[in-house]
Specification:
By secondary structure, this protein is α+β, with helices and mostly antiparallel strands. The chain is built from four helices and eight strands.
Length: 144
Amino acid sequence: MKPKAKATRLENELANLFWQNGYAVVRGPSSGGGVSKRYQPDLVAIKDGRILVIEVKSKRNDSPLYIDSSQILNLMEFSKRSLGIPIIAFKSSRKEWRFHFIDNLESKGNSFKLENPGEGLRFRDLEEALFKKHKDMEEFLKNK
């Protein structure tokens, strides 16, 4: 499969995952390529007022991932303008999606490094981090 076709397939797969979980989702047309004057993220997913601005990445394995600094800076700028949360979504061959907040990135010259892309948050953990569906221990004990 050609790289562009693979990227499109993965972006659509992820968009469907968010959609099936109650998000409104838009995939950026020509995300990445051909848009010179402004940045378009791969996906924007919205639920309950939370805006996720998502850059989709994939590799065959879980070795460190390097992302060009301009992509991360543009992701941050778009997130700032939209009051969104910048997210890196990662998928390696035959494994489930993993999600990373950008504060997990290390600056490495002209790029950013994600040391363990396959060890990010699972989808359900991302939802928990965003929407806190479960009570923490203090809150639980207060209600006893």
